[in-house]
Amino acid sequence: MTKMNKLKYVGLSLLFFGVANAQDAEGAKKAIDAEKYQKAKSILKSLIKENPDEGKNYFLLGDVYLKQEEKDSAAMYFNKGKGVKKDEEYNLIGLAHIKLNEGNTAAADTQLKAVEDELRRRDVEQLVYIGRAYIESDNANYKKAISFLNKAIEKDDEYAKAYLALGDAYVGDENYSEAYKAYRNAFRLDSSLLRAKLQLGVITKNTRAAFPEAVSAFENILSADPNYGPAYRELAETYYLWANTDTSKYDQYINKALDYYKKYMELTDYSLNSRMRYADFLVLARDYKALEEEAKKMQELDEVNPRILRYLSYSAYENGNYEASMKAMNEFMSKVEDDRLIARDYLYLGLAKLASTISTDAEGNSIVSDEEMFNGAIEDIKKAAEMDIEITNEFNAIGKKLFGQRLYGPASIVFEVAAENPDNRNAFYDNFYLAYSVYYDHVNKSEEDRAENIERLKVADKALDRVIELSPDAQDAFLFKARINQFMKSEEAYAEMAKAYDEYIRIVTEAGAESVEENKKKLIEAYENAGAYYQVLDKEKAKEYFTQALELDPENEYAKQQLEGLE
C-alpha cells in the first residue's frame, strides 16, 4: 500500500467576526478542501484587509502557500500574523512547520510545545494544526502527530476534524486499520466532511486489489456533491493504477483516468501549481503530446519557473526531439538544487544523449558519433537506477522503443541496467531483449568494430543464461545463444553454439509438426551450423543433422555437399 498523497489537506473552523465575514470564511474553508487554492487565497486576502487583527486568517493564507511549496510567501504571512491581537499562536504553528521542513526539528519542537503550554482548556483546533504540521512536514513525524491529535480528542471527543487528521497521521505511519477507524469516526461525527469519506476510498484504492470498490466509493461521494473535485482526482489515480495492473485494459482505463483528471482540473483552478500536478499525472499516464502542450501553457504563465523545463525535456524526448530534450534538462539541472533532482531527470537526460549519439554510416551500420556523450549517457541512466531502483521496472518499454527505432546499442544499455535489478518485474524480457539488442547491434557493426565488441557479446550470452534459468524451454533463447557464441569465434564459444543449437532443435521438434513447419528456416540454420561443428567431433551426429536439413529443404546444396564429404 502506498503512503497518502503528498497533497496536503486541512479542515478549517468558522471564523467568528460577523455574519458576512463568517460566510466568507466558510467559503475559504470549502475552497481549500476542494483544492481551489487560488479562490481560497483571494477570500483570505480580502478577510485580512477587512479585519487585520484576526491572526487565524494570516495562518490559513500562509498554510495555503505552504501547500503550494511557496515557503517565502508562507513565512511572510505567518510573520505578519504572529504580531496581531487575536489568535496569533496559529502563526507560530505555521513558522514551526517551516522549521520542520528545513530540518530544524529541535527548534520546531520547542516552539510547538510552547504553543501547547499556552492553550486554554477549550483550545482544540490548535492541537489539530500542530498535528498537521508534523504530518505535512517534509520531515514528517507521524507518531508525534498522533500524540498531539489524541490530546485534541481527549479535550473534545466529538471534534470531527481531529479524527480526520488522526486518520492522515495513521496512514503516514502505515497503520491502515487505525486510519480507517479514524476516518469513519470523522464522517460519523460530521457527514458533510467529504474529505473523510474520500480518504476511506483512498485506503481501499491503495490495496491494489479493490479497484471496483474504490471507484464505487468515489462515485458515491460525487452522487452527494458532483462538484467535489478531489473525488475526480482519486478516480483518475484509481484508473491509472488499475490500467497498470490489468494491462489488457490499459488503453481503456488510462483514457478514463485522463478524462477524470481533466474534470478535476476544471473544478479546481488553473494556477501554475495545479497545472504542475496535472503535468505530473500526464507523465505517469505517458500522454506526452498533452504534456508538451501543458508545458508550453505553463511557460506562458511563468517563464522563469525551472520545473517547467523538466516537463519540456520529458515531452521533447518522447516526441522525438532529442536535442531539445537535452537542452531543457541541462538548463533545468543548472537552475535547481541537487536535492530537487529525481531519478527520472537523469533517466531522460541519459536517453536523450543516447539517441543523439547514435547514427548510421553509408552501409546502414549503427555507429557512435560522440563517444564522450555516449559514455555520459550510460552514467546518467545508471545514476537514475541508483537513485531509485524501482524506475528500472519502466526500462522495458523504454528499451523496446529504442529497439523499434533500430537504436540497438542504446537499447542494450537500458535493458542491461534494468536486468541488474534483483527485483525486476520484467526480468525474463529484459534479459532476452538485452541479448537481442546486443546481437543486432553487433550485426550492424563494421567488421573492424565487431572485433572490438566481444565483451558485449559475453554480456548477451550471460543474459540468455538468465532467460533459460527462468524458462528452460524458451526456444529462441537457445537460438540467439547459439548465434551470439558463433560470433565470438573461439573453440569454447563454438562448443556453446553447438549445445545451444542442440537444445533449440530438441524443443522445436518435440513440440510437433506444426512447430517444425513454423520454425523451418531457423531449424535449417541450426542443423547446418551444428552439423558443421560436429563434422570433426561426431560424424554420425553431423550426418543426422545434414540429413534433417535436406528433409526440410531438399534443394539445400550446402547440406548435400557436407553429406558427400562425410561419406
TrEMBL record:
Name the record gives this protein: Tetratricopeptide repeat protein
Signal sequence coordinates: 1-22
Keywords: Repeat, Signal, TPR repeat
InterPro entries named in the record: TPR-like_helical_dom_sf, TPR_rpt, Ycf3
Domain of life from the UniProt record: Bacteria
The keyword Phosphoprotein belongs to this UniProt entry's keyword annotation: no
Each TPR repeat, start to end: 160-193, 524-556
